[in-house]
């Protein structure tokens, strides 16, 4: 996997809090039709060290690893807020040898 990715991380297990908005906790259920309505994504209280480890960045590819949505993917683009990704998601950080949108297309294909 190092041919296409700098890192692969499992998501963070945490409870969401709808009253918080500084850092959002992106869950599988928040991803619908390759989009996220960030206004409905709940917040989460997280310390700085953990935020640095689980922060979602532009061009990160998230893939659902369990349940009825296994294989569902989302490419983070145009992020304007702080977010972490929840458990049941795996983050793939593409390296500079591959275009993130190409990796997303592959994840959505029957070849994957």
- CATH homologous superfamily? DNA methylase specificity domains
CATH architecture descriptor? Alpha-Beta Complex
Number of strands: 8
CATH class placement? Alpha Beta
Give the quaternary arrangement of the chains. Answer: single chain
Q: Classify the fold: give the CATH topology.
A: Adenine-n6-DNA-methyltransferase TaqI, Chain A, domain 2
Radius of gyration: 13 Å
Poorly predicted runs are none
What about the largest sheet?
4 strands, antiparallel
Helix content: 10-25%
Gross geometry: globular
Total number of distinct structural domains: 1
Keywords:
112 residues, alpha+beta, Adenine-n6-DNA-methyltransferase TaqI, Chain A, domain 2, two-stranded parallel ribbon, 2 helices, 8 strands, globular
Description:
With 112 residues, the protein is of the alpha+beta class. It has one domain (5-108): Alpha-Beta Complex (Adenine-n6-DNA-methyltransferase TaqI, Chain A, domain 2), CATH 3.90.220. The protein has helices at residues 48-54, 100-108; strands at 5-10, 23-26, 31-32, 35-36, 61-64, 73-75, 82-85, 89-94. The strands form three sheets. Strands 1-8-5-6 form a four-stranded antiparallel β-sheet, with helices on one face. A hairpin with an 8-residue loop joins strand 5 and strand 6 (73-75). The longest helix is centred in the last third of the chain and has 9 residues, at 100-108. It is globular, with a radius of gyration of 13 Å. The chain starts with a strand and ends with a helix. The model has no long low-confidence stretch (mean pLDDT 89).
């Amino acid at each position: 996997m190092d041919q296409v990715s700098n890192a692969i991380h499992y998501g963070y297990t945490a409870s969401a809090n709808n009253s918080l908005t500084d850092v959002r906790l992106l869950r599988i259920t928040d991803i619908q039709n390759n989009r996220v309505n960030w206004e409905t994504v709940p917040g989460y209280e997280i310390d700085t060290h953990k935020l640095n480890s689980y922060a979602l960045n532009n061009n990160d590819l998230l893939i659902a690893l369990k349940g009825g949505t296994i294989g569902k993917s989302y490419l983070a683009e145009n992020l304007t807020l702080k977010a972490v990704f929840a458990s049941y998601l795996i983050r793939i950080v593409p390296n500079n040898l591959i275009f993130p949108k190409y990796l997303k297309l592959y994840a959505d294909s029957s070849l994957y």
